[in-house]
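Notes from hallway chat w/ T.B., transcribed later so I don't forget. T.B. wanted the structure written out for a chain they're using in a teaching module, and asked if we could keep both sequence and structure tokens in one place. Agreed to drop them here.
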Amino acid sequence: SPLPMELLRDHSYWIAAPKLEDFLQTLINQKWKHKYDDIIQEVGHHNPELHAWGVLDSVLKMMNHPREILQQPEKFLAYFISPEPPIENLVRTEKFISFDLPLVAEQYPIISKYLVSAFEALPRYSGQGLGQSEWQHIHLKISWPQVSESLFEKEANPQISPLFLQNIIDDLQKNQKELEEKNRELMRVNDELTLAHKELNKSPSTSLLSQTQQIQIDMGSSEDEEAHRISQNLARLHDYMVRAQQLITILSGQAKMNTVIKEAMRRMDWEYVKSQYPTTISDCVEALRKIQKK
């Protein structure tokens, strides 16, 4: 069945691999296919310009070398594969990184082609050219472009340490998981409302129903639709808050001595907002449940 547009727009929604493969195949077969030699590969190679990875794009651009991006390859892959895939036979050198992962490239050729192309584009975030990637069966190898190390030695005092960047990535992953859990909760409430609406429609109408009762049923249906809209908007609001928190984390970490940023955060009472927002969302979810039970 076709994927709903609202789910395609929700970056926290996971699509089953077979459905995603079929969806990408549908995209490839569209009328624009004649304009590109290989649209999947081109999209993957142009990721740095597309800014499709949100805050992760900004973090990747802060890294001095693409090797830093894959310090923990299983963590990075978790942005694209759920649950986080276990990595085996890891080999790491100055020129390449290779490992085995539990996903057969030939089983999902379009998905694997996009991921390979995206991995080849990782060096571009640090100002280099494309790398080379090979994915055969379960073995993935990513080779870095040959660039003189002197280009990196010129920065004797880098402004941002790899450890700090890794901490940011860890925070992003934590926030992403929290967002997914909250969205799953909202979607569950939405499913309950949808089920209640269907059960309501199944109730046989008889001539004994008064006009007043019929109006009440119509109003109940309208309330279900409103509750669905509210749940979707709550999911979006939570997403916006997570993005704001990620940006604040980056700013506060980069400028620990910057009094302007500290003062701005104090005036907006950021710590209070951050602590109260999850409670507010939870209260709204609980209110939706109560509406559904009435």
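Follow-up for T.B.: Residues 211-254 form the longest helix (44 residues). Might be a good example for the class.
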